[in-house]
Amino acid sequence: MSVKTHGFLEFTSTIRLDFNSKMRGGMSEVNHNQFIYKGDKKMLLRDFSPDFTADFNDEQQARASMQKDAADIAKFQDILMAHETHGLLVIFQAMDGAGKDATIKNVMSNLDPQGCEMKMFKAPTEKEVKHDYLQRAAQSVPARGQIGIFNRSYYEHVIVERIHPEKLARQNLPESAAGKDIWKKRFRHINNFEEYLLDNGIHVLKFFLHLSKEEQRKKLLERIKRPEKKWKFALEDLEDRKHWNKYMKVYEEAFNQTSTKIAPWYIIPDNHRWFARAAIASIVLKKLKSLHSKYPNTSEKQKKEIAKAQALLQKESKKTKP
User: Which DSSP string do the residues of 301-318 spell out, in sequence order?
Assistant: First the structure.
């Protein structure tokens, strides 16, 4: 029997790939667990196929699923805002050309601007580089009742800076903080930071858009050719492409060290962006539903205030009648 390969490698008499999907109102509902990078299993990115599309028959079906979930995300965002007891931080990491911007735009298009904020982690300024590397993130964490979106994140400091040591050198760290154990220490800092956030009601969702090298080549060519995308092109993208294998190894180590039970990494197949967006929308919606399923109950004090307000408004209506 042929299957679409993806998921966790299981070693029995043969190697097989496990996935589980079911239909939901005519649309495919994907088992989210298959995307989780299990750090304790010392997995590899090649364990995940960037071409995977679950049981979606075509792009139209996936778009319909994403649009429905995006509308529901807005509904449960409103419920999140009403409670103000939990917050949600959504992190996107990827190689250049993976479509982070467009994915955020499509999946989060229905969000209430009053209840969300997006942070783009570009190269730190001269002032920012003098602070600890988590400072920018700590300042941008969403409040309880809010959704925060990080387009790239503090993970740049354990990924990009390993490939480009000159970026680490800019920080002018003391020798004790820049030794051979720096990455091990930073992984520990990040895990502690995410645990600290959860202890304060802020949940973290982490997505890696898993694009193949060949698909990235096509996307970068498209970026060069299309007028509305040319402005995004930077020669640095091609320089980083030369280090593709190094990046994959660095990402794998980061995932192995920081994909935890409280904040796992989701490796999202991204060769077909319509699938990536449908999968992410489904995961975000499920997370929001797990935080609150309905609006908060009205307290006795609120009930009295509502009754008083209603009586005053009704009395005012009677006075204004001709």
Answer: HHHHHHHHHHHHHHHHHH
Whether residue 155 is contained in a domain is answered as yes
* Cβ 280 vs Cβ 91: under 8 Å: no
3-state secondary structure (DSSP) of residue 52: coil
pLDDT tier at 320 (50, 70, 90 boundaries)?
low
Where do we find the tokens 């699938």? 275
Q: Residue 29 — very low, low, confident or very high, per pLDDT cuts 50/70/90?
A: low
Q: Which tens digit of pLDDT belongs to each residue from 170-202? A: 999 998 888 889 999 999 999 999 999 999 999
Instruction: Give the residue carrying structure tokens 């294998």.
Output: 245
Does residue 32 belong to any structural domain of this protein? yes
Q: Which of 136, 151, 147, 36 is nearest to 89 (CA)?
A: 147
Domain tally, the chain: 1
Mean pLDDT of the chain: 88
CATH of the domain at 20: 3.40.50.300
Comparing CA positions, the residue from 151, 120, 155, 103 lying closest to residue 272 is 103
Q: What are phi and psi of 169, to 5 degrees?
A: -60, -30
Predicted confidence (pLDDT) per residue in 70-109, tens digit? 999 999 999 999 999 999 999 999 999 999 999 999 999 9
Token pair in block for residue 6? 């993806």
Please check the confidence at residue 166 and state whether its pLDDT lies above 50.
yes
For 63, 101, 145, 163, 280, the CA distances from 66, given in Å and listed in that order, are 5, 16, 23, 35, 8
Q: Would residue 46 be called left, alpha or beta, if left means φ above 0 and alpha means ψ between -120 and 50 degrees?
A: alpha
Domain residues for 40? 9-320
